[in-house]
Structures are given as structure tokens and as C-alpha cells.
Design a protein that fits this description.
- Helix 7 packs across helix 8 and helix 8 crosses helix 9.
- The chain folds into three domains: about 55 residues, no CATH class; about 220 residues, Leucine Aminopeptidase, subunit E, domain 1 (3-Layer(aba) Sandwich); about 160 residues, TPP-binding domain (Rossmann fold).
- It is about 40% helix and about 15% strand.
- It contains 20 helices and 18 strands.
């Protein structure tokens, strides 16, 4: 598969160089044309380069059939690494039974389930069609940095989807009308079909007018009309999954959009008692959109109850739908079951999976509203930031941040990992680049955890005046919190700003951020880690050790990612295997290692991944 990926890249890069009309990209320098350079790139940059080039590539000229076949093979192989969720596992939020529908054709009608689900719409299986919020050109998004649903769907489906859309648009001869729909095959998607609909675009400074509200409603009814003509699934169901139409770049207010979506879909079902559609799923990607739909369903339930309607609202299930056990998951599970030793290697993606997402704007707005005026919008933005209004403001942020971390609730994800580790008795070790202390806070013994990047539970002398100038942070946080203004989030008592008790100098967080970092508190655990790895390597002799790498991206690959690969690649340690899981690069293992059965990559939410790997009769 690696050779097919390289062949695709060589063709696309050469083609991009030969077409000056192509948007400029980082591939304009000549060394990208060198076959050796392309083949030596890591798998994730290769896949990203292919994705970006295909995103920018127009449908004309057509790709050679062999290259198209190679692209399909590469995308299929990549897609097979993704966590999948079956529509059959999603519990309904609303059920419309035949006796609830308009009754002329009651004898031939079926119950219709309307469900709410949060996740990647391209990972839904056992669905007839998914809905794509398209633009009027209907060719997909040509901007590779856009994380719009149009881009995501086209990326997973492959370039044949753009070709199919182009054929439809050439035949139509004009832009697609707002509120209408076009149907194409799903190609490499799990869904058999894609419904492309163009939602209304709203001026963000104005409320949507009557026409725009009608157009949005038309998107939903048009998609349901189109689904009627599609073949049913083998089990007889006909399932359509809606994304949130018009609510992001097109600026339709999410709450109003959800209300229109629900009302339109329920009314359509009432008006079509003999419909062949059996399941309708509202899919949200963001938590806040999920909460908006939940609130609207609750309000909808109240209004229908008062009107005497018999539409039923099943109770919400206590757990989210479980992911399918794919061949990729089965292989990783078997490796864990057969392993004699376990290494848990964790990066920022694991913290993000329990809500401590340093890229989240909503998390920052919730906990640090007093710092938004500084241009800060994410926890990551504070790294290296020096434009504080005052030391009082700076330390107020640090104290609030430290308090948020230490009071973060325990999680089911870490509990599951702890249960996994317990099956190995003393034959496991944890090494993490995260400074948040979540492993120990969730019950892992401190002596089994190494944190080479430091920990928030310590402050250190910035000048490193002496090796032991490191102090627990909790007493400083406890002393300062009562003196932080709850509105401005500024420290009102400058005597609470910490100073080194030895030299009186500035303190800072004891995490790796430069030459000032004092690694002394963490050296003992690093020695234990190295002793553990050496001991495992000496005692393998037909046994197996698994590195379970979770949420380790490309920010600091030399800390965890590359050393993990080196463990697996070392011919003197043939018993090591790597399971790499996470979102994006964090879930992509080198394909050459996969081809030698030394590694497996799993793309998806870590809560789902760990549950699938460890739960259900592990």
C-alpha cells in the first residue's frame, strides 16, 4: 500500500507543478519532486499531502484510471483504520408509530425513529445516505485548511465524488438552488449515498428572514424526498443522517436551525404516513450543537405533550453508542490479550478526550473569560505569551489554570486504562508527555508513571538558583485563590505572587518550555522507565510487549512518538508491537510497520477506542 501512496503523490505533485492555475502550495519547491524525498516522508505527511492536493484539484482533467484506482485503494486502507458506529446502536429520541401518523395509508406505514448522535458523520455505518452541506457549485471545498463538512466528506469519499458532482453540474448548467438536493454515490464512504444540499447563507449581523427559514426547511424536506427513491438497506431499513446545515460558515443561528430541522422532519413524517424512510439521525460534531438539539427535543416533547400527541419519546440511554469491532480493532485487541508487558504512552490527545483540550475555545471561554481581551482564546495560546497587563494578571491565570487541572473530575476513560494495566500486575509502565497528573489523579501508582515534560504540581525557580529550588504548587494556589477577582480574574494581593524561597527570584511552572526547565524532580521516574524497558527487552524471548500509544501527535515527537517507533523497529527486540490511536496524526502508524505486522493505527475518539480495545469481554 505504501508504494501505491507514493505513486499517487508523485503523479499529483508533478501535475500540480505543471498547472500554474493551481493555488500555490508548499509543494512548489523542487525537492518535493524527488522520488527519494517523497518515499522518505512519514506516512501522515504523505497522506496529508495527498489530501491537500486532491482538495485543490479541479475535476478536469480527469485522473488516469490507474491513479484513481490507487487513490481508492489508499483511501480505503486509511478509512479502515477509523472507528465506526452503526446506526443500529443509536437509540431513538423520538418514535413516530403508525397510529401516530395521518391515517389514510396506515396499514403500509412503519414506525420512524428520529435519533440524536454526536460524532463524525463519515464514520456512520448501516446508513442509506448522509447529508452534505454543500455550496452552490456543488464541487466540494477547495481550501484544504477548511474543516467544513463538505471537505471532510469529500476527503473520505475520494475524488470520484467530485467527478460525480461535476457531471451533475455540467448537465444542469447552472449553480445549485438553495434548498434543493442532488444525489451521488458515497464511493469510499460507509454510506451508500450522499445527499448534497445548499443551505441559506445568513448575514451574521441579522436574524434570518422568513425566506431563509423556509429555504432551510426545504433542505430537510428535499433530502427526505430524495431518500424515498433510494434502495433500502439489506435489513429493510432506510436510514438518513443529517449534518447541521448552514450553522457554521453560513452563519444560521444554531438554536433556530435545530428548531427548524426538528419541526420540518417531524412534520414531513406526519405528512408521509407510507414513507419508506425508517430512521432519521441528527448528527452533531460539536458538543454545544448536541446540547442545543437536546434542549429543542425536550421543548418539543413538552409542546406535544400539552397538545395531546401520542408521539413517544424513549428515555435517553445511560451510555453512548459503542463503536463497531472492525478488523483493525480485532487485531489490536488480540495483541493486548496476548501481551506479557504493557507500555501506556500518552500525549495531549488523551487529556483532550476527557475534556482538557488545549485547542478548545469553549473550554477557555468557560474558565478564563477575563483573559479574552488579551487575544487569548485557547490554553495553547498562553504558551510563550508575555503580553500580560501585570504580574498579578499573569499569576491569576496560572493559579486558575492549576486549580482547574487539579480539580478536574476523574473519568471513565482513565478507569478503563487502569483496569487494563491491572491485568498485567507489575508488568506495565506509563510514560506521558502530559503535565496534568491525570494518571495519578485517576488511581495509577505514582511509581509506575514517568513525566519527562514535567508536572503542574510543582513550581520552580526560573533561574535554577540551586538544583532543589522546586516547590509544590498547591500551597501557592490555595493561598491565592481567595484574592482573585471573580469578574476580572486578576490577583488583588501581589504578596500572593510566588517567589523562590532561596534566592527570592521569579518562579515558573515546572514544565519543559526552554532551558530554564528543572528536570530534577522527574529523573528518578525516568530512570525507572529506562530500567523497565531494558528489563522487558532482556526478558522477551518469545514473549510480547505492546506499546499502547494514545493521543500522541507531532508537537513533540522526539519525546514519545519516535522512541516508540524505534522500540518496534529494533530488530534486537522482535517482541514489541505498537498500537497508535487518536485523532489525525495521533492515530496514524507508519504503514511500513503495519505491513510488517509491527504496528496498527486507529483513528477515532479515544474514549471509543479504549472501550473497544479493552471492554466487552477483553
Amino acid at each position: 500500500m505504501k508504494s501505491r501512496l507514493i505513486r499517487v503523490l508523485q503523479h499529483l505533485i508533478q501535475e500540480a507543478h505543471g498547472h500554474v492555475s493551481q493555488p500555490p502550495s508548499c509543494h512548489s519547491c523542487s525537492h518535493h519532486m524527488n522520488p527519494d524525498y517523497i518515499s522518505q516522508m512519514e506516512t501522515w505527511p504523505q497522506l496529508e499531502t495527498m489530501r491537500r492536493l486532491l482538495c485543490q484539484r479541479p475535476p478536469i482533467p480527469e485522473l488516469p484510471s490507474q491513479i484513481l484506482d490507487d487513490i481508492d485503494a489508499v483511501i480505503t486502507y486509511r478509512n479502515n483504520k477509523a472507528m465506526l458506529t452503526s446506526s443500529t446502536s443509536i437509540a431513538p429520541s423520538i418514535v413516530l408509530k403508525p397510529n401516530n401518523l395521518k391515517t389514510a395509508e396506515k396499514s403500509s406505514s412503519k414506525a420512524i425513529s428520529i435519533s440524536l448522535w454526536k460524532g463524525d458523520i463519515t464514520s456512520l455505518t448501516d446508513v442509506t445516505a448522509i447529508v452534505n452541506a454543500a455550496n452552490s457549485q456543488l464541487l466540494g471545498c477547495f481550501r484544504p485548511d477548511h474543516r467544513c463538512i463538505d471537505n471532510i466528506i469529500h476527503s473520505v469519499a475520494g475524488p470520484r465524488l467530485r467527478d460525480a458532482c461535476n457531471s451533475l453540474m455540467l448537465k444542469q448548467g447552472r449553480p445549485e438552488s438553495v434548498g434543493s438536493v442532488k444525489v451521488t454515490p458515497g464511493f469510499n464512504l460507509p454510506a451508500q449515498w450522499v445527499l448534497h444540499t445548499v443551505g441559506p447563507q445568513v448575514n451574521s449581523r441579522k436574524s434570518p428572514g422568513t425566506l431563509q427559514q423556509q429555504q432551510l426547511a426545504s433542505c430537510y424536506s428535499s433530502c427526505l424526498d430524495a431518500t424515498e427513491s433510494l434502495p433500502a438497506l439489506p435489513d429493510g431499513r432506510k436510514v438518513v443522517a443529517f449534518c447541521c446545515i448552514s450553522t457554521r460558515l453560513f452563519a444560521f443561528p444554531p438554536d433556530m436551525a435545530a428548531k427548524i430541522a426538528l419541526e420540518t422532519v417531524v412534520q414531513w413524517c406526519m405528512d408521509h404516513p407510507a414513507t419508506s424512510v425508517t430512521d432519521i439521525i441528527f448528527d452533531t460534531f460539536l458538543e454545544r450543537d448536541y446540547e442545543i438539539y437536546e434542549a429543542n427535543i425536550s421543548e418539543f416533547k413538552t409542546s406535544l405533550a400539552s397538545s395531546g400527541s401520542q408521539i413517544s419519546f424513549p428515555p435517553s440511554p445511560p451510555i453512548q453508542p459503542r463503536a463497531l469491532i472492525t478488523p483493525t480493532i480485532s487485531k489490536a485487541r488480540s495483541w493486548l490479550q496476548e501481551a506479557d508487558y504493557l507500555i501506556i504512552s500518552a500525549g495531549a490527545g488523551l487529556s483532550a478526550a476527557i475534556g482538557l483540550d488545549y485547542t478548545s475555545t469553549s473550554l477557555f471561554q468557560e474558565h478564563f473569560p477575563g483573559f479574552l481581551h488579551l487575544g487569548l482564546g485557547r490554553l495553547y495560546d498562553v504558551f510563550g505569551f508575555n503580553d500580560w497587563d501585570s504580574p498579578n494578571q499573569k499569576w491569576a491565570y496560572y493559579f486558575l489554570h492549576l486549580n482547574m487541572i487539579r480539580t478536574w473530575p476523574t473519568s471513565k476513560l482513565y478507569e478503563t486504562l487502569r483496569e487494563l494495566a491491572a491485568r498485567f500486575d507489575d508488568r506495565y509502565f506509563v510514560r506521558t508527555s502530559n503535565a496534568d497528573g491525570r494518571f495519578v489523579a485517576n488511581g495509577f501508582p505514582a511509581e509506575k508513571v514517568s513525566t519527562p515534560q514535567g508536572q503542574y504540581r510543582f513550581l520552580q525557580c526560573f533561574a535554577k538558583c540551586r538544583p532543589d529550588a522546586v516547590f509544590p504548587s498547591d500551597p501557592f494556589v490555595d493561598a491565592a485563590l481567595p484574592f482573585i477577582d471573580p469578574k476580572t480574574q486578576v490577583l488583588t494581593d501581589e504578596t500572593k505572587i510566588p517567589a523562590c524561597q532561596y534566592c527570592g527570584g521569579e518562579l515558573t511552572l515546572c514544565v519543559r518550555g526552554g532551558d530554564y526547565f528543572n528536570s530534577r524532580p522527574f529523573r528518578a521516574q525516568e530512570r525507572k522507565w529506562k530500567e523497565y524497558v531494558d528489563d522487558v527487552a532482556r526478558n522477551l524471548d518469545g514473549r510480547r510487549a505492546v506499546v499502547l500509544e494514545l493521543g500522541v501527535g507531532l508537537n513533540t515527537p522526539a519525546v514519545l512518538r519516535w522512541p516508540n517507533e524505534e522500540l518496534v523497529e529494533d530488530p534486537s527486540n522482535p517482541g514489541f508491537r505498537l498500537i497508535r490511536a487518536g485523532i489525525g496524526a495521533s492515530g496514524c502508524a507508519p504503514w511500513d510497520l503495519e505491513e510488517h505486522d509491527l504496528a496498527v493505527g486507529i483513528e477515532g475518539d479515544l474514549s471509543l477506542v479504549v472501550e473497544a480495545l479493552v471492554g466487552r469481554g477483553f
